[in-house]
Write a structure and sequence with these properties.
alpha+beta; Umud Fragment, subunit A; four-stranded antiparallel beta sheet; 3 helices; 28% strand; elongated
């Protein structure tokens, strides 16, 4: 049995700089990641809004129609279905999915009518046509029409395949993380 070996196994002269660069790159990457999380930066990889880097900005006033927001909806049966079908990516919202970036289309008290498209207070919403099936051929059930309850908002995205309140209904304002501001984005 050999307990101690005096073999001289040192790194080759070429491996030391490579190992140093790898270590420094890892440290820089970790610092950028932590700064992004602490600084409210998020990466959007879904086509509902432009792809790229976004920032969560404080919302120091009541939410308004037209606000683009980050939101964590509660884990309802419809949201759970979205997670199971892969519509929602993994993330830090309760339920294990990532926050959604959506535009507030209606607030409490507004009347929503859902047919072939969404109509809010008798005004059709552009780019709001519903689709009957998702990309995998599974049925999509629209949210039934109604009035947005107190303390909730109705969310929309102009992307035709967006999974938003057309399908899962209004969401509570307490799930709003803040305004969504584009930092470095690309709209294909």
């Amino acid at each position: 049995m050999i307990l101690y070996s005096n073999s001289n196994r040192s790194l080759s002269p070429h491996a030391r700089p490579a190992l140093f660069i790898l270590g420094m790159s890892s440290i820089v990457g970790l610092v950028i990641f932590v700064a992004g999380v602490v600084g409210g930066l998020r990466v959007n990889t879904t086509p509902s809004e432009p792809l790229g880097l976004w920032r969560v900005a404080a919302l120091d006033r009541p939410v308004q129609v037209g606000d683009v927001i980050f939101v964590c909806p509660p884990l309802t049966a419809r949201i759970r279905e979205g997670v199971e079908r892969g519509y929602l990516r993994s993330g830090l919202c309760p339920g294990g999915f990532g926050p959604l970036i959506k535009t507030v289309a209606a607030v409490a008290g507004q009347r929503i009518e859902i047919g072939a498209e969404v109509v809010i207070d008798d005004q059709p919403i552009g780019h709001s046509q519903l689709i009957a099936r998702d990309g995998q051929g599974r049925m999509l059930r629209p949210y039934p029409s109604g009035t947005v309850p107190a303390g909730e908002v109705f969310l929309h995205s102009p992307f035709v395949g967006s999974w938003d309140s057309r399908y899962f209904g209004p969401v509570p304002v307490f799930g709003i993380l803040g305004l969504a501001e584009q930092v470095l984005t690309y709209a294909p």
